Structure formats: C-alpha cells, structure tokens
Amino acid sequence: MRRAAGGGWRVASGGRLKPVRSSPGALVGAVSDPSGTLNGVQTELVRPESIVNPPAAAVAEGSGPTAAPAHAPQADVFGNIFIGIAGMIGAGKSTLAAALGQHLGIETYYEPVADNEYLSDFYRDTARHSFAMQVYLLNRRFQQHQEIIWRGRSAVQDRTIYEDSIFAKMLARTGLMTDRDYRTYVQLFRNMSNFMCKPSVIVYLDVTPEASAERIAMRSRDVESKIELGYLRALHEGYQEFVANISKVIPVIRVDYERFATAEAMAEVIKREYLDVSFLRNVTRFDPTR
Q1: Ordered structural domains, the chain, with CATH
Q2: Beta carbons within 8 Å of 275's beta carbon, 6+ residues apart
Q3: Among 103, 126, 198, 264, who pairs with 29 as Cys (CB 3.0-4.6 Å)?
Q4: Range with the lowest mean pLDDT among 51-55, 177-181, 203-207, 271-275?
Q5: 79-83, 248-252, 275-279: which has the minimum mean pLDDT?
Q6: Can you say how many angstroms the Cα of residue 226 is from the centroid of all Cα atoms in its chain?
C-alpha cells in the first residue's frame, strides 16, 4: 500500500497499518498503531482506496449518519474535514450539527440520546449508575468516532468523545463516582485514545449556565427535569478547563452561537479560523485528568 499524498497510512511488517508523518505545516494529530507507539499523523482524513471502503465488520453498526447528504459546493472549500461540535447541555450542538451538515453537504452524526438505556436511571440515582453511564457513553462515542474515521468522508459530530471526560471528572469530584471507578474510566479512555484519529477542528459553543438552564427548560425532556443550576455551573467550569487543555492538542474555535445564528455564518467562521491559519500539533494525546 502506497503512502497517500501529504501523509496517511502504510502497511508495516505483519500487515499492521502504521501512520505516516505529514509534511511540515500540516495539521498534525496523534494515533497509536497496535504496538502502542504514538506517531504524529495528519488529521485530514486521507485514506488509501482499500480503507475508504472498509469491510462491513470494520464499521460499527447503528452509529452512522442519519441520512446521506447531498453534495454541496461549500464542502469542497474545506476538503476532507472532521468537525466536532462541543458545548454545554442545551448549547445548540445538535441544531448546529444538522445545519452545518446540510449547508456543507457532509454527513452528520448525532449524540446517542434516544436509545440510551442508562439515561433515566442515571438521573434518578446518579451515584449508583454513574460509572455504568460513563462507560456506556464512552463505548458509543468511540464506536461513532471510529466509524467517521473508517468511512473516510467529511463529517460533523454532535458532541465529541473527549467531552465525556468532563462529566466523569465532575462526578468524581462531587463524590458521585468512586475514586476506583474514576481511575478505571481514565485508564479505559487513555487506552481507547491510542487508536483515535483526532477531529480536524472542534467548535465550542460557549453558553452560560443560566442560558443552558433556560434552554433545558424550553425543550422539556423528562430525564433532564431534575438538572439543577449548581450542576450546570460546575459543568461550565469543567468545560473551561477542557477547552484550555484540548486546544493544546486539537484546534478549537470558541464561539457564542447566538452571534452566528445561521449555518452560513457559522461555516464562514469555521472557514476563516480553520483554513486561514496554519496549525501544527506535535503533542501526543489529550489527558482526561488535566
């Protein structure tokens, strides 16, 4: 298998896929091959032909995009891009992901909420179900994240896998998850992160805890009815720490979504901030405990 232009993958001894370093000036992330060695690779999703169409068993079931998008000329401006949408509960992630997917003509992946069999139990007795809930979400998001990578097509994702660590850390800090369970969660996250290619960019929708509470009340989901403002304030602090740390590894665009109410305006923001700046990331991976 030959190297893809500007970086990509090659076959090493034993048939293992190994990442190839991209040229200087390219946006660089990190991934691990099966031997456990971290190597810098570009986050542009360039793949040889045999990986663009992987075998069915390699693609996770039930986590794909809701619909195949129609091609839009705007998508060509970005090339092959993986956009992650991050933000508080009620920040507008799903709305923005849907709008960007339609506007750019790229696949959209939504947060697994409707079929989350732990959600109601978690809100009813958080301490009892916190670890199971976090492991469930980590598994589902890893499945979805890897499908985006394996499909090799541009995509936008509603909530990234990295944000799960915010909730797990907050649960541990507030005594709703035991230290033992949190250590296990962090070890699992780190092991899984060795096999994850990073998004091209994360768009962080910055909303206040008060605005988050108002939006939660407006959408009237039964499972969210007991979320208190104090919880949202602690979560907001966790997001500020998260953005400060993840931006050392993955480019982050922080925006006030209320200032960019249309997909066109947001796409222009992403285009300006992402394409007009040369990012070079040589750090290895995101540490969920920091």
Answers
A1: 53-275 (3.40.50.300)
A2: 77, 78
A3: 198
A4: 51-55
A5: 275-279
A6: 26
